């Protein structure tokens, strides 16, 4: 037994369990887990959330330390930065590094260097999962300390980032979605000016650790840098976003995570003696807004909305499946997502011959090697599986779980995987892959 959970009994799963634990141990710093020892040497926001879920199975104290260290870097306005820079790591080990973000010059930023962007707010969901995986008095106390910070995170997103005025949060950069170079962002990014001369003004560190064919293109990066530069020049302030910022999108995953966070906060509130009612009410409003704003009855799936044009972006990506996270998603949309998921585009099945891709595998721009333009990712698989279980699709959830375990069996704890062959891609010994592997091994579908 580990933290009250049954360690997998089969020899193969036993070895996978040990591999995952070794991976997390190898990436552990004094108060957080680096996503990898190669490409990602600092602390990343939604990585830490997923990693906390895994730690709960083997070292619950590290789960709470992981989340606490991240929220110690929360800005005064409530935002949780997508990178917290480790001062022990050389400043040139990652681009864009702390000097590029220049958070120290911003009023309301923490003392530690951070980025100025956010990532999907999966943290309340992770904290609630971590507690339920390993309930204890110390865990309840940690929940109590995190609760007001999680509430502040949600308040920031619901106020500062509701640029469209319809109850959804807007992302101001593709990095905030977590799916950096997804085809979902092609149309909004095409309108962002990127001077070719800017390509020589910085050195991409990612290409020292991964093949260029597996990563976002130089043109993508030029646009990424242009968007950050615009936001940084404005002091990372959100009050002028509607007028001036070049990239503004309402993302299905980001907002589904925000709604799921309110449901998780309702559970946390009940556990620590706070009022769950306001969280349940806010969750319902988010779900309604997400259906009204991002569901396309013509395609039968969810799409991001580009606030610059007012139009839904056309690509059919795995983002369209993630509203399953919402337990109060109407039955019509749940069924539409199921149809989309089992179609030839994504291939979800009770027995899956291929992994779940991040993009429609029948699309002309499907790229099986390039980051979020095709490959399979363990964290998205985990989120979709969580949603399937919440809506009673246990057989499909079991198929996805088996596919996740098969990926790790075939390729280990890689960052992401080839969506046809399951070959490991990106960084080896990747933190959230190991953490979520532990969780699916320890929690068979019921």
TrEMBL record:
Residue span(s) of domain Mannosylglycerate hydrolase MGH1-like glycoside hydrolase: 40-433
Coiled coil: none
Gene3D superfamilies: 1.50.10.10
A GO MF label: Glc3Man9GlcNAc2 oligosaccharide glucosidase activity
PANTHER family the UniProt entry points to: MANNOSYL-OLIGOSACCHARIDE GLUCOSIDASE
Similarity section: Belongs to the glycosyl hydrolase 63 family.
Name of the protein in question: Mannosylglycerate hydrolase MGH1-like glycoside hydrolase domain-containing protein
